[in-house]
Structures are given as C-alpha cells and as structure tokens.
Design a protein that fits this description.
The chain has about 160 residues and is of the alpha+beta class. The protein is globular, with a radius of gyration of 17 Å. Helices cover about 20% and strands about 15% of the residues. The longest helix is centred in the middle third of the chain and has 13 residues.
Length: about 160
C-alpha cells in the first residue's frame, strides 16, 4: 500500500490510502479466539484525520423497550438499514467490549487497562491520567467498556 499522494478515489477509505507500513501480531485469547494487534505507520499528513476517526462509540441506536439490556448486547439496538453498518454494530458488540476479570486485569483491585473509561465527547485523541493513557471519542457512559477502534478497519476485519 502506498500513501504518497493526497488524491482520494471514490469510495476509498482514508486510512487505507494513508498506510505506509504495517506490523501485525496475532495471539489467542483465553476464550480461544484469535486476537490481532495491528500497528500502522501513516502518512504524516493524514495522521490527524485518521486519529479523529478512532472511536469507542457504539454504532447503534437503542431500540425502544430494550434499554434494560447491557450495552454489549447486539439485540439492544435497532437493526441498521445498511448491511455494513449492521456488521459493524455486531463486530463492536461482539469483539470491542472489555470485560474486567479479577484473575486477569483486576488482580490489583482496579483494571490495569484503565476501564471503565470516562466519557469523552471530543473527537480529538488525548493523553489522560497519571499513566498518560490515550483517550478517544467515547460519547456516553454506555461506551465506558468499549475498546477504541477505527470503524473502516473494524468493518473490513469483521467479526
């Protein structure tokens, strides 16, 4: 992939054209699902735009009468009309929610990954807290356990 030009073709995802290099690491989680860590080196001119696209929002609208269901339950939300949006909602509900466990991330009483995360309405990424953890767009309290993601990559990656 080349990110050397600023020209954008119709329908092309901004992050894809911005990638200069990729490093991937795969491992299996305790639930035996494959987990990927992907590091992308971006064209410096595209960094701010792509950074503003990273979110920890749930891409769905809560359906009437389903408010009692947990935020990670796909059935809590109205079914999006577009298949890509529906697939993204399913992927976020299924793969992007962190679950704190006493024998792993919460061994010392609080989550070592910083969850639950505070609401952040601003789309600009910020470093917060004593450990300078990156904080991303997280519009509501329902999103406090959503692991940040890039919507286009999550949609391409799938569930």
């Amino acid at each position: 992939m080349s990110g050397g030009t600023n020209a954008k073709t119709e329908g092309e995802c901004n992050i894809v054209r911005s990638v200069l290099s990729i490093h991937k690491l795969y491992h299996f989680l305790s639930r035996r699902s494959l987990h990927a860590h992907i590091m992308l080196w971006l064209d410096p001119a595209s960094r701010a735009v792509v950074e503003s696209e990273i979110t920890a929002a749930i891409p769905g609208v809560v359906a009437p009468g389903k408010e009692h269901l947990p935020p990670s339950d796909y059935h809590r939300y109205q079914k999006p009309a577009c298949k890509v949006e529906d697939d993204l909602l399913y992927t976020v509900c299924r793969k992007q929610f962190h679950t704190c466990r006493p024998n792993s991330c919460c061994e010392k009483g609080s989550c070592s990954f910083g969850f639950p995360m505070p609401v952040q309405v601003d789309r600009k990424a910020k470093q917060v807290g004593a450990d300078l953890r990156w904080s991303y767009h997280r519009p509501t309290k329902d999103c406090e356990f959503v692991v940040p993601y890039h919507p286009a990559i999550a949609a391409m990656w799938g569930g």
